[in-house]
Amino acid sequence: MFEIIAQHPIPAALVALGGLAIIFGAILGFAAVKFKVEGDPIVEQIDHLLPQTQCGQCGYPGCRPYAEAIANGDTINKCPPGGQNTINAIADLLDVEAPTLDEEHGEESDVKTVAYIREDECIGCTKCIQACPVDAILGAAKLMHTVIVSECTGCDLCVEPCPVDCIDMLPVEKGLADWKWNLPPSAEEQINALHPDDIIATDAKDDDTDHDAKHDGDNGEKAA
Amino acid sequence: MRKVWDLIGGVHPPENKHQSVQDSIGTLPLPQKLVIPLNQHIGAPPKLLVSTGDKVLKGQPLAEPKGMVSVGVHAPTSGLISDISDHPIPHPSGMAARCITLIPDGEDQGVEYQGTDNFREKTPKELLKIIRTSGIAGLGGAGFPTAVKLNARQPISTLIINATECEPYITADDMLMRERPEAVVEGIKILSYILGEPDEILIGIEDNKSQAYDALEPYLEDTNIELVEFITRYPSGGEKQLIQILTGKEVPYGGLPADIGIVCQNIGTTHAIQQAIVHGEPLISRVTTVTGKACTTNRNYQTLIGTPISHLLEHNGFDQSHCSRLVMGGPMMGFSLESSDIPVIKTTNCILTPNQEELPTPPPAQPCIRCGMCAEACPASLLPQQLFWYAQSQNYERLDAHSLFDCIECGACSYVCPSNIPLVQYYRASKGEIRKQAAEKVNSDRARERFEFQKSRKEKEATAKAAKREARKKAAEQARVKSAENPAENLTGNTTETKASAADDIIKAAMARAEAKKASPEEQLAKLERGVVRAGSHLETVQKRLGDLEQEATDKQREQALAAVENARVRLNDAQQKLSEVKVAPADSDPTSTSTEKALASTEKTIVEKIQASPSAALEKKISTLKERIAVTEEKIASADDDALKTALQNGLEKQQTKLKDAEQQLTETPPETEGVTNTTSTTETMDAAASAIARAQAKAAEQSSMSDEDKLKASVESLQKRLKKAQEKLTAAEAEGSEHIDAFRSGAEKLQAKLTATEAELAEKAQ
């Protein structure tokens, strides 16, 4: 065996390398099948950052399609319900500069809303039920419909199809459970809140020509 | 002496406790009104038991606990419930919540309390129930229902009584121990009994309460209760901090003391438990400290829950102009109140009225200079500085990584900060934001799930529809192929025979279907009988389950079970009713079947006629029927008042008109009586006509096999009467029992009555 290898070094080397190539190829091939990643993981991650209102304001039929579009290079500032927070989070994920919200697709609103059906006006046409992306409207043909408030994402999609215009978007009432402390005002806000007289002379802009004299005067006052 | 561990970090602000311990615990005259918030604890709000205008006695429950983590509230004195509405409550938000307003009648009449002389006669479970219904929630500040805390799943080896009261100014627990040591110690014994006599019982007390220490000591002589004194340092009274000082153990991140076999109770809570179990007195008052330089008198009071703070302040010579801000709680962890028209609740241990000198308005924050004093002061070993930076930049991930949720919000870091940065407010705001985001995440995950489920459901529906369409298309194609084969034969001769055979097949199929329908009443009867039996057995099992539940289930479960029983009963009724309907039916079913046969015979006749008629005649006939239909449709459109209906009808009309045009064209194209060419069209035509005729016959048969309208109405009137009678019986039974579902019964009976009268009216109309 050894002699054969010694006598034919080049073919032996080729055989050895070929053998290794086959082994590693088999391992890689196996791994590619065994550890195959289903779908595009980046789409999944973007989808998890989107607010899942399924409102379609971005121009895509739902949050996941928009996530797919972003993964394929669409701009990330088309989601008004998510607002700047979502844009920042996606920008962070994709490592790009965070743009501001594209106003074309709607404005960011702090007030969360839910749909409310004025039930005595509802004619039972089921149009809103078909429009709801999360099955949050309950009802049947010619019977009154109602919104399951806990499931409503406030996407507005049911308002437009209603033939008798009996759906309102009402702001979600905020109770004690939703209350939270606010961040203290930032340094800038604090300074802005101060009365001009409270700002000491050295902080003020010196736009006066006799600014030496003013300084002296101020210092005198302070000392006093 | 027991080994005592050191508090990590901590600060020592001026104690300012001496002012309010000069006098004993006082009592105040009854206030003009008491405002009792429904939810004074952490957990679910209790269920209201009274309504406006009710007269209540002292100690009478106003609301009972609803759900696991809940406690009730009781009337602090006798009087009249004047209002149940939203009223500002002691909360940092200054928001309003549901409160019961009680106008005292001044008589202070109470219900009779049922105490126990020897608590050991009762099981721990019974004692826990008394604690729960007596409305006891942690009086130390958090207000967590005590019964839940004592009902630990893990075995408890150490009971710790928190007598630390480490915040400056507050002396409520101190005075309680000085004046009622016996009751406090008895309360500890009750706690120990409930917890299954833990190995160690420790009272943790700071060394600035020597009088309380001396008062307690004699009562501990023959017990295994140990009084442990340690150095005064804020915040040694934090639950986790106290556990660390006394045992050296650390509560795991995100865990509870019970996870390491420890239960911690406040002195005030211990006293309230003793009152509830020995004297049967629910939690209707507590000791509250009123202190601060804006009040001339600084003292502790046994205060009724619901007493407006303004009432307390009035009796202590409060001077608004000297007060820098009104604080509930201590100067470190308390919060400012916007007005004094806020009631004292179970967790109100102190009303602080400091003047500018005691608690000045905080100066504006300066930039952080990275001095690190906050890290030294932090009792939870966190890095307040880092947390501050991350909170400022709203980097919630990093905040979580730096264990923000271990922060106990004690305020030691803010206290030592040389730049006067309100650090705790940053942490509170960030915690709120993180909690909010977590809640939103849960919601958005659910929305995604629902969206994806809907998408998959719609896809499934679409594929099913497509498959159906495909199958229909295939069948149509086969039929076309078959009819295409037939004309080849037709050309050679005998057309009528093949036509007749095709028609025969169709007629046979229709007859078979009619047969099947005729046979069905018996089957239906059997099916319905089976249904009744099944519904009956279902009802039995549900009732049995309800019986099982009765003993230990929660209210919610019981309600669910009751609803299930109700449901089952309704189903049984329905099934029985249907059965009776069907049983009445056989009398009419004979004529129906004959009429079905008649209908079939007539269809057969028309089909045969059609087949025998020449193709052009058939076309003419078709055109005339189409014209008739169009006329009918036009009439309908004229009379229709619904827009949607109108458009639908219009569409139908258009279709009919195009069909008519086609038929007319065909008629002109068809040369009269040229056999070979028209054969194919006429066969397909016949097929169409036959199919529609059969459909009509089927519809008619279906209609006739059911009863006539009048009979139907009569049957429904009968059943409605039966149901109404039953409902009324139920209603009277419910009234007798005083069931809580009485309203539902009543409205059900009313609805049935309305339905019955409507049906009777209809019947009368029909009879005319």
Annotation field: number of helices of chain B: 21
Specify the CATH class of the largest domain in chain A: Mainly Alpha
CATH class of the largest domain in chain B: Alpha Beta
From the N-terminal CA to the C-terminal CA of chain B, the straight-line distance is 102 Å
Q: Helix- and strand-based class of chain A? A: mainly alpha
Share in β-strands of chain A: 5-15%
Describe the protein in words:
The complex is a heterodimer of chains A (224) and B (768). Chain A is mainly alpha-helical and 224 residues long. Chain A folds into three domains: 2-34; 41-105, 3-methyladenine DNA Glycosylase II, Chain A, domain 3 (Orthogonal Bundle); 113-171, Alpha-Beta Plaits. Helices cover 39% and strands 6% of the residues of chain A. Chain A contains eight helices and four strands. Chain A has helices spanning 2-7, 9-34, 41-49, 63-71, 83-94, 127-131, 187-193, 211-223; strands spanning 113-117, 137-138, 146-147, 167-171. In chain A, the strands form two sheets. In chain A, strands 1-4 form a two-stranded antiparallel sheet. In chain A, strands 2-3 form a two-stranded antiparallel ribbon. In chain A, strand 2 (137-138) and strand 3 (146-147) form a beta hairpin. In chain A, helix 3 (41-49) packs across helix 4. The longest helix of chain A has 26 residues, at 9-34. Chain B has 21 helices and 17 strands. In chain B, the strands form four sheets. In chain B, strands 1-14-13-17-15-16 form a six-stranded mixed sheet. Chain B has a four-stranded antiparallel sheet with strand order 2-8-7-4, with no helix packed on it. With 768 residues, chain B is an alpha/beta fold. Chain B is elongated and about 120 Å long. Chain B has helices at residues 124-133, 146-150, 172-179, 181-194, 210-216, 239-247, 267-279, 309-314, 373-377, 384-392, 396-401, 412-416, 423-492, 495-550, 555-584, 586-612, 615-639, 643-669, 675-705, 709-737, 742-767; strands at residues 26-27, 34-37, 47-48, 55-56, 61-64, 73-74, 79-88, 96-104, 158-163, 200-206, 225-230, 262-266, 285-291, 299-304, 327-328, 335-336, 350-352. Mean pLDDT of chain B is 83; it is low at 586-594 and 672-686. Chain B folds into five domains: 18-351, Rossmann fold; 373-492; 496-614 and 673-705, no CATH class; 617-661; 708-768. The interface between A and B is medium-sized, with 30 and 36 residues.
